[in-house]
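Per your request, structure below.
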């Protein structure tokens, strides 16, 4: 124990390694000594009664401190089951998910990146505990279980979304990574005109969907790169089709995303290579949105009944280089136009940025206070 009351980093690392095996539910039986000291020091708990829940809140806040757009931060969330619906996953499943963040096998992750993830998380726990703004008012009201607790720096991941509007038409806005959404029939991915998906370890919509749709585990055998494989097959069947006209939409299956209630992924080709970067004409966002609705109507007529919900990210606003506000405005206009002609759709928009959500009239999109 350090003179300031915080535990030694080495002790905390050792305990977090042990906790990786048992997972967050193990805290309900025993909060180990170093984590206990950090939790009490940080003000996430005031006594034994809320110690377990407080320790979990501290770990969640530390993982978010590492950054959800950072490989280490995302791998930490996977390693400890911090993503929605993953808290009780077995250790092997959590390690497999973390390995996919880096695009490596579970065994390679265990011998390499996992050590760094645990060490960085321990450092973030101590940094979180040292912040005087967090003491002593951090503990959330005690509820029926850890699932109701909230981290000090929460990511807003609403299950039903926030009510917004595209012009005069209602939409549901989600402040969330796209791969965490559930029960939406069609997710739209932003691609380049050569249909080359982003690498699965990159913090892009395309990379996230590619990673989340992959089927299988490298430790057990071949991993099926479902989305990229289907796109490659689509191109092979159409020699000379590339590059696509900007705004073209190509559908694929959902792979492992089907477990989350997703039925289709639509790949909107909007990014045009420009040297070592990309450029996106915002008018092509409108073209892609119209093409998504047209494709969905055809698929619904051709044997996929029940398609009724679709979710758009901010097309072209990542590596495409388009300003978020510009992408959101064109997306809003295009959705309103599509719903004016065909109002029977449930339309969703997903972004991690509250400023973009305001374009859709979502004023409550700010992160809540701790």
């Amino acid at each position: 124990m350090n003179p300031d009351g915080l535990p030694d980093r080495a002790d905390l690392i050792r305990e977090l390694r042990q906790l990786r095996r048992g997972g967050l539910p193990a805290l309900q039986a025993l909060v180990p000594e170093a984590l206990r000291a950090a939790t009490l020091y940080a003000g996430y708990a005031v006594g034994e009664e809320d110690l377990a829940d407080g320790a979990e809140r501290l770990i969640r806040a530390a993982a978010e401190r590492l950054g959800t757009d950072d490989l280490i931060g995302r791998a930490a969330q996977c390693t400890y089951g911090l993503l929605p619906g993953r808290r009780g996953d077995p250790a092997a499943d959590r390690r497999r998910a973390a390995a996919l963040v880096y695009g490596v096998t579970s065994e390679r992750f265990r011998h390499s990146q996992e050590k760094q993830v645990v060490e960085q998380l321990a450092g973030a726990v101590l940094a979180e505990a040292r912040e005087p703004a967090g003491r002593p008012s951090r503990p959330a009201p005690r509820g029926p279980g850890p699932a109701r607790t909230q981290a000090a720096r929460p990511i807003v991941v609403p299950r039903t979304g926030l009510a917004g509007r595209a012009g005069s038409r209602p939409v549901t806005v989600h402040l969330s990574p796209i791969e965490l959404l559930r029960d939406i029939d069609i997710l739209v991915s932003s691609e380049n005109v050569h249909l080359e998906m982003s690498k699965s370890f990159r913090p892009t919509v395309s990379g996230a969907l590619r990673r989340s749709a992959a089927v299988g585990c490298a430790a057990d055998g071949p991993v099926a790169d479902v989305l990229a494989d289907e796109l490659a097959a689509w191109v092979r069947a159409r020699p000379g089709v590339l590059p696509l006209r900007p705004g073209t939409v190509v559908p694929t299956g959902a792979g492992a995303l089907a477990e989350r209630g997703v039925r289709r992924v639509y790949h909107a080709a909007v990014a045009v290579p420009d040297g070592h970067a990309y450029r996106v004409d915002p008018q092509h966002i409108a073209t892609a949105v119209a093409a998504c609705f047209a494709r969905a109507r055809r698929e619904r007529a051709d044997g996929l009944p029940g398609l009724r919900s679709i979710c758009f990210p901010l097309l072209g606003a990542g590596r495409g280089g388009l300003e978020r506000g510009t992408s959101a405005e064109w997306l809003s206009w295009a959705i309103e136009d599509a719903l004016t002609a065909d109002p029977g759709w449930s339309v969703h928009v997903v972004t991690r940025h509250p400023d973009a959500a305001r374009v859709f009239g979502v004023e409550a999109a700010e992160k809540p206070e701790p």
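Confidence is low (pLDDT under 50) at residues 133-160, 364-370.

Regards,
D.
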